[in-house]
Amino acid sequence: MAELGLNEHHQNAVINYMRFARSKRALRLKTVDSCFQDLKDSRLTEDTFTVDEVTEMLDGLKIVVHSEVESELINTAYTNVLLLRQLFCQAEKWYLKLQTDISDLENRELLEQVAEFEKTEFTSSGRKVNSEIIKPKLAPLNEGGVSELLSKEITRLQDENDKLKARLRTVETQATSALEEKLKLEKFLKDLKKVPEDQKELEKKFQETAAYRNMKEILTKKNEQVKELRKRLSQYEAED
């Protein structure tokens, strides 16, 4: 029995589509046949025709058949687009990105495989012949198994992303606060260096005080804190 390498659910979906396509093809072929029959009934009423009359009839028939075939090809293309849209919409609900290979559409080996599959499914000598179209309920994926795990994983990643964003905002706030304190201390020390010459002695004495040493120590720690916060901030931004 010819197979397409699909699971039973997907293979049944393919069979339904092929049944739909066969019915549309048969209907269009009947329309083309009727074009020829209409010509016979309306124009072939005489025993002999001139070359011009035959040419006129054939040209008219060509126009009608061309229109019917073109209409069917366009409709088939649009139908395929709608089928792809159904599949893509289901995939996007689960954050999946499906891929297609257009070159496979002209792969003779694969086309012959599909032809053999159709022959097996829809001829009296094949596995079954059933004109009833199965209409399963359209659903993105089954509620259990892989789909449930995928849904849980998406939820977990979203929660983790929210927590990471919150930590990032906290680190940004801490880094901004530490940087502001650092700038204030630097400004204070810079202002001290601008005192007049007669007060240099006062600056020297102040530098020898515990308050000055504490301030220098605080500034050093703030510098280290700012470096560490910037390092953590860049790490979180990269993860986000």
From TrEMBL:
Q: Which InterPro entries match?
A: LZTFL1
- Answer whether the UniProt record assigns the keyword Coiled coil to this protein: yes
Alphabetical UniProt keywords: Coiled coil, Cytoplasm
Q: What Pfam families does the record point to? A: Leu_zip
Sorted alphabetically, the Gene Ontology BP terms of this entry are: negative regulation of protein localization to cilium
The record's GO CC annotations read: cytoplasm
Localization per Swiss-Prot or TrEMBL: Cytoplasm
- Domain of life here? Eukaryota
Q: What does this protein do?
A: Regulates ciliary localization of the BBSome complex. Together with the BBSome complex, controls SMO ciliary trafficking and contributes to the sonic hedgehog (SHH) pathway regulation. May play a role in neurite outgrowth. May have tumor suppressor function.
Entry protein name: Leucine zipper transcription factor-like protein 1
